[in-house]
Amino acid sequence: IVPTADETVRILFSKESAGQIKALPEEITPKKDLRWNLRESRDNIQITLDKLIVIITRKTGALEFFTKSGVPLLSESPTLPRQYHGMKDTWWEYFAWSKKENLSTRGATDDVWTDLTQCAKYISHGKDSPRPALLMSAKGYQLLIPGGIRTLVCTISAHGPYLCFEDTGCIDYFFRALR
Predict the structure, then answer these.
(1) What percent of the chain shows pLDDT beyond 90?
(2) Strand pairing of 103-106 and 113-115?
(3) Residue 151 to residues 76, 86, 142, 168: CA-CA distances in angstroms?
(4) φ and ψ at residue 116, rounded to 5 degrees
(5) What's the rounded Cα separation, in Å, for the pair 111 and 99?
(6) What band does 11 get if pLDDT is binned at 50, 70 and 90?
(7) CB count in 10 Å sphere of residue 51
């Protein structure tokens, strides 16, 4: 977990060395002299930035994201936060999205958005595209996946819900709080 700006963290999970990680998307502006705080307890670790709080559960490694005032934005599944299939270099990250959460993804241009209610769709823009996949929630956050990472989102609760990262050695995305 890499704090990047007051409202943004980069999430990277890898079984081995992640190798060459992707460049920051243009939408992410790193903050110089970023101040953040790390606090540990018996059960979890908390990273506090100016506009975002990330809590990591020690037992499972599950992540939870909150606004600075403590309003929950997103949580990974507490029982199975992520999985890796080494033969295919495929990762799944399971989230606790509710059926009522309004999620959408950006298309090939910034003015084209697709609703992600109860569906499974590829949200990436091709292996050679530098354009990051972007998932936005009406709850006030975004997930940005660096360009070139084949990404499938599934919001059907019977199957996940999850993000699937294909043909990559790691999970790699940015969480950005908008409020």
Answers:
(1) 77
(2) antiparallel
(3) 17, 16, 15, 10
(4) -115, 25
(5) 25
(6) very high
(7) 16
**Alpha-carbon span 32 to 35, nearest angstrom:** 9
* Strand, coil or helix: 37: strand
Dig out the tokens for 38 from the structure: 């790390």
3-state secondary structure of 108: coil
d(CA 2, CA 24): 12
pLDDT tens per residue, range 110-127: 899 999 999 999 999 988
The maximal CA–CA distance of the chain, rounded, in angstroms, is 46
CA distances from 142 to 23, 43, 59, 65, 105 (A): 18, 27, 26, 11, 10
DSSP state, residue 15:
S
User: Per-residue b/e over 89-115, b at no fewer than 16 CB within 10 Å?
Assistant: ebbbbbbbbeeebebbbbeeeeeeeee
Q: What is the pLDDT of residue 77?
A: 94
Contacts of 101 (CB under 8 A, 6+ apart): 137, 138, 139
Q: Which two tokens stand for residue 62?
A: 């599950």
The model's pLDDT over 127-176, given as tens digits with 9 standing for 90+, comes to: 888 899 999 999 999 999 999 999 999 999 888 899 999 988 889 999 99
Q: The tokens of 68 are what?
A: 């600075």
pLDDT class of 18 with cuts at 50, 70, 90: low
